[in-house]
Design goal:
It is a single chain. The protein is α/β, with parallel strands linked by helices. It has 17 helices and 18 strands. Strand 2, helix 3 and strand 3 form a beta-alpha-beta unit. The longest helix is centred in the C-terminal third of the chain and has 23 residues. The radius of gyration is 26 Å and the shape is elongated.
Length: 488
């Protein structure tokens, strides 16, 4: 897999960089288009070296121009090529028209697209719609997308799969499902979260020779999280110097959530982990993990001594929303401890919003909707905006979990692309809360603990899936991989 840039941009920002490259750095627009087509064609040759025929679907803008360049290069390489035009090529303008004329000069075949075409091709090229899409795809374009998706051959998307919103990762009615997407000049943030995971395939990048100083003039909208090794431990380290995590949760019938959060904190390196839970199962919770210190706590007053000893608190796993839960939750957020608020802690917070600078909130989209008083669908409509809104309203660091988990801190928005569908099982969020708490307890900043916690949590799941598959993955299966990752 290609080592991708860390910086991500909104579509308008990439258009601005494109403008700067053309107008201020003197790179002709057709030259950039030619480079884009070349890079995409090189990817086709590398990924499908045995392909002998290519079908290129072209629309009406510069994305179509890239497609005609690809088609011309494929003709020159001796491949059997056909362009299916959703828009009449003679109506193209500017560089896109020049690209079509180059393909036409090579005696390339163009067929006006109609539903029902029999398409024989080893590879399909999606050059229908670019990054400027701002409304649902309809009409002939939607029919072309359906035709592409129904074809058995692999698809390469030019810059972005047609129908995918470049800023949000949402499908605008329908979208091409690509095996590979080649993104040009700047990586679009929408390629890395939400529904995009199902549509982009492998993401590749081509800078197209745009000078580095063009990028310095445009501030990235977001960044990708990359793994940062933890600092080496002092040879004189002891349990007290590695942080004491307190997990508050585990209503009757839900002891497993707090138990898994506690073990995850231990496996990621916390020196001590205590659990404040219902007295009815406190004596049983650590039977197979005696390193956990479990305490029966029935009142907020009983929690005070444990809070005093803790360096970091996790509140919420299995907590419930009873009077007992509310009393413990209020005691925790009234303390001056750095904390992670998860699960029912988030639901209780949504009912009584407050702001703190030293906490990390870890909602899934449903919990995020409650925090912002909107629907889950509203959150998913623009996950980037949701993460930023939660952080602005509640302070600290806000995580919005899901495919392409987002981490919003005061001055940075980041996305992590580790993880897989096998994580759609109970307890994964509890483990994540414990992981983040342990990193925070060992001295990482709120931002770094959140980013590295999310990254390593997802990567542990990827390693587990690599060994045994997605279905049947349990939260507890991540534990040995978490330990492995924090020691790399």
């Amino acid at each position: 897999m290609q080592n991708l840039p860390i910086k991500l941009y909104r579509a308008a920002q990439v258009r601005e960089m494109d403008r700067i490259a053309i107008q201020e750095r003197g790179i002709p627009g057709f030259e950039l288009m030619s480079r884009a087509g070349y890079e995409a064609f090189q990817r086709i040759k590398k990924q499908w070296p045995d392909a002998r025929s290519v079908a290129v679907f072209c629309g009406s803008g510069n994305n179509a121009g890239d497609g005609y360049i690809i088609a011309a290069l494929a003709v020159e390489a001796g491949l059997n090529v056909c362009v299916y035009a959703v828009s009449e090529p003679d109506k193209l303008t500017g560089d896109a028209l020049s690209a079509y004329r180059k393909y036409d000069a090579a005696n390339g075949t163009v067929i006006p697209f109609q539903t029902g075409h029999t398409i024989n091709a080893d590879v399909l090229v999606d050059a229908l719609l670019g990054t400027g899409l701002d409304r649902p795809v309809t009409g002939l374009y939607a029919e072309a997308i359906q035709t592409i998706n129904a074809h058995p051959s692999p698809v390469i998307a030019v810059d972005i799969p047609s129908g995918l919103n470049a800023d949000t990762g949402n499908v605008m009615g329908c979208a091409v499902k690509a095996a590979c997407t080649v993104s040009f000049i700047g990586l679009k943030q929408g390629l890395f979260t939400g529904q995009a995971a199902e549509y982009c395939g492998e993401i590749c990048y081509a800078q197209l020779g745009v000078p580095e100083d063009v990028f310095t003039g445009v501030k990235a909208a977001a960044t990708r999280v990359v793994k940062t090794p933890l600092p080496r431990r002092d040879r004189c380290a002891h349990k007290g110097s590695c942080g004491h995590v307190l997990i508050v949760g585990g209503e009757l019938g839900y002891s497993g959530a707090a138990r898994m959060a506690g073990e995850a904190a231990l496996r990621v390196g916390a020196g001590l982990v205590s659990i404040a839970t219902r007295a009815g199962h406190a004596g049983l919770m650590n039977l197979n993990r005696p390193e956990l210190m479990c305490h029966g706590v029935e009142t907020a007053g009983q929690l005070a001594a444990l809070l005093a000893k803790a360096d970091v608190v996790v509140v919420g796993p299995g907590l419930g929303q009873s009077d007992w839960a509310k009393a413990l939750f209020n005691a925790v957020i009234s303390s001056a401890k750095p904390m992670i608020v998860d699960a029912d802690g988030l639901n209780l917070l949504a009912g009584s919003p407050t702001q703190k600078p030293d906490w990390i909130l870890t909602p899934h989209p449903g919990e995020a909707g409650r925090l912002l008083n909107c629907t889950t669908a509203g959150i998913q409509q623009d996950r980037f905006a949701a993460a930023l809104s939660i952080q602005a309203r509640y302070g600290g660091v806000a995580i919005v979990k899901g495919a392409g988990t987002l981490i919003a801190s005061e001055h940075e928005l980041a996305v992590s692309n580790t993880g897989n569908p096998g994580m759609a099982s109970g307890g994964m969020g509890d483990v994540l809360a414990g992981v983040i708490a342990a990193l925070l307890a060992q001295g990482l900043s709120l931002k770094d603990a959140a980013q590295q916690g999310v990254y390593n949590h997802g990567l542990a799941a990827d390693l587990a899936v690599e060994k045994d598959g997605e279905r049947g993955l349990l939260a507890g299966d991540l534990m040995p991989y978490l330990r492995q990752l924090v020691n790399e």
